[in-house]
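Hello again, I could really use a second opinion on something today. For a while now I've been wondering how a particular protein folds. Please have a think about how the structure follows from the sequence. Here's the protein in full, and shout if anything looks odd to you:

***
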Amino acid sequence: MLLGLIGVAMFSLTLPFTRMAVADLDPAFVALGRAVTAACCAALWLGWNKAPWPPRSALIPLACVAGGCIIGFPWLTSIAMRSVPATHGAVLVGMLPLATAVWAALRGGERPSAGFWCMAVLGTALVAGFALHGSGGSLRPADLALLAAVLLAAMGYAEGGKLAQRLGAPQVICWALLLAAPVLAPVVAWLLWHDAAHIAAAGARAWAGFAYISLFSMFIAFFFWYRGMALGGVARVGQVQLVQPFLTMLGAALLLGEALEWTTLLFALAVIVVVGAGRKMQVKRG
């Protein structure tokens, strides 16, 4: 749970820093460029540790991690952060624990108890209600992109957490990054050539956001996150994500000056209580 919480704390700043990056940079370049940058770090880590090649049986789970966490979630959230505040996006990303638990139950051999599902649904209802309250009772167009991003990230989290039991957390994210790199590198190179003047004119604030999501959101945080799920189970450790929206809101307030209202603190307290209850519920591991 502690390893998962460290990973979530790093992930929680992804949306604020992404919003900083896409203020000056194209969302496609931000999403794909951060993956290529992280892939370079992954290659160095694997070479330094002389890591063995993954078995063939790991290729499909690694592809799920690449498609969900390295391509899908970054791209869709980068697009959404152009039109909605990070605080709004944060509450929708709060749906991740339930989506991850569902994927784990279907594909990961985990069997959450009825009490676990009740806590997961209750926590998700809290963050979904907060999202609707903040947007006046209706979903914005960018909300669809965020919801799709949640589903893809849940797939990558669940598959990566299970695979980390066999390969180890660092190997999972590193090999997934390298698997995606041959596809992404030509696209990023074309974006660099096509939009060179605009990219060169981006300010230091945008590049600081890009650096964070490349090194922490896309690389280092996964070391803690996948290791935590490998030890404690995908469904249970995934519940820690319920506090992520409110950590993101705090980050958005500090980094972007977005408003942090008292209702946010009340919802945060309610969600933390649900996380504590869900942690104690039985989750059978296959």
Remarks:
- The longest helix spans residues 204-232.
